[in-house]
Amino acid sequence: MSSYDVIVVGAGSVGVPIALALGEKGLKILVVDKNPSPGQGENKHGIGGIRATHSDSAKIITGLRSLEIFSTWEERFGDDIEWVKGGYTFPAYRAADEQLLKGMLPTQKKYGLNIDFVGPGEMQVIVPGINPEGLIGGTFSPDDGSASPLLAISAFYRRAVELGVEFRFKEEIRGLLVGNGNIQGVAAESGRYWAPVVVDAAGPYSKDLCRTVDVDMPVVPESHEAGITEPVQQFFTSMVVDMRPIPGSKNYYFYQNRHGQVIFCLTPEPPLRGTDKRETSVFLPQISTRMVTLMPRLRNLRVRRVWRGLYPMSPDGSPLVGWNREIQGLVHATGMCGQGFMLGPGLGEVIARMITHETNEEDKIILEALSPYRVFGAEEVLK
Ligand SMILES: Cc1cc2nc3c(=O)[nH]c(=O)nc-3n(C[C@H](O)[C@H](O)[C@H](O)COP(=O)(O)OP(=O)(O)OC[C@H]3O[C@@H](n4cnc5c(N)ncnc54)[C@H](O)[C@@H]3O)c2cc1C
Question: Best label site of 4, 25, 99, 108, fewest CB within 10 Å?
């Protein structure tokens, strides 16, 4: 069967931008996905938050590049991906959170992030109706924002097709093909496809994919639920992240989209490992209580629907990106945790340059920090 310069397994948040960036370099690319169209894995479960507000240099640099791609997409290519520059807000009600947020500012500013710690008065202007009781202030990064994951990935996909990238849907990859320590291609249901470079962008299923060649990728799927309300008149634009853990959940986050709907998501504690995507009766009472306490005016909103998807979790909350050291030509682009949509476009370009041996100094910082072979230490603070 056909041979390619690069095969990407997974047409998701990361696989499509990688293919797009490689397509821009004129390479012959094949993307294979078991689903019927792009973004039908976890991409479509994301709520669309896009930020460069991270705690470490690699994700800040990547996030800034992603923001540039999302925010200029419509003017460059004409597709409306529902980009909104609403900013990200991390309110602080505890001295420990104030310290944590302020402690990250020097690193964030060093890499060019537009962010500041604002007092309680300004916080109440940015998030009208936020509970003022005990509010110390918080960070606001006005250049962060949101977009529709399905509109964005469809736009990236169409552009990749224009550049000659080939996509095969409804094709499950049964295994990677290796000979003499080199990747040779992939075994799909319908036959074999050949390439000297294969990218593992299989998200929550990376472990299964890599197991076929005895590579143990530490990616574990975790279930997360989200929901969306009916549309109402616009009354806030920023993504609000409440970092305070309470029994049953860690943080939760929400924003009002361009249609006036409030979209929300919560991090359960303890984590719900596995691939169960059935909605629960626990989530809505859990998150609505928290949201209404933080912002009482949300109490009259009616929820339209909830859904549940998977975070492809790495051991420390940061992606796993780089060449495999045992199998030449195998690239890992996985473990995106809760940030694959926002990191995808930036990482796509870095990975394309890695494959064509054109990395720059910033790429090296990113690839070193996200190496699958790093020593996994403490969890990334804003994961
Ligand atoms: C409720 C919720 C809210 C979220 N909110 C946000 C957010 O606001 N911002 C953000 O950045 N992220 C968010 N995320 C996280 C984001 O959705 C994921 O990090 C991201 O989609 C992962 O991208 P990926 O490309 O690794 O995986 P996916 O997008 O799932 O892509 C992997 C693809 O690989 C395919 N595949 C896997 N194995 C095979 C195989 N063997 N053969 C063929 N195809 C295969 C799958 O079908 C899939 O299409 C959220 C996630 C959830 C669940």
Answer: 99
Q: Which residue CA neighbors atom 12 of ligand 1 most closely?
A: 339
Q: What is the DSSP letter of 237?
A: -
Does residue 141 contact residue 100 with C-beta atoms inside 8 Å? no
| DSSP letter (8 states) at residue 203 | G
Q: How far is the CA of 98 from the centre of ligand 1 (A)?
A: 32
Q: Is 8 exposed, middle or buried (0-12, 13-18, 19+ CB in 10 A)?
A: buried
What is the distance, to the nearest Å, from the Cα of residue 239 to the centroid of all Cα atoms in its chain?
15
Asked whether the whole model's pTM tops 0.85, one would answer: yes
DSSP structure string for 119-134: -HHHHHHHSTT---TT
Q: Could you tell me the distance, in angstroms and rounded to a whole number, from the CA of residue 338 to the centre of ligand 1?
A: 9
Q: Of ligand 1's atoms, which has the minimum distance to the CA of residue 14? A: 25
Rounded CA-CA distance 210/194 in Å is 17
Angle between helix 361-369 and 340-355 (nearest 10): 120
Tens-place pLDDT, residues 100-134? 999 999 999 999 999 999 999 999 999 999 999 99
DSSP string, 151-165: HHHHHHHHHHHHTT-
For the purposes of burial, counting CB atoms within 10 Å of the CB of 375, is it exposed (0-12), middle (13-18) or buried (19 or more)? Answer: exposed
- How many angstroms separate the alpha carbon of residue 190 from the centre of ligand 1? 24
Q: Is 228 helix (H, G, I), strand (E, B) or coil?
A: strand
Taking the C-alpha atoms of residue 358 and residue 370, their distance in angstroms, rounded to an integer, is 18
Residue 10 CA: nearest ligand 1 atom is: 34
The residue whose CA has the least distance to atom 21 of ligand 1 is 43
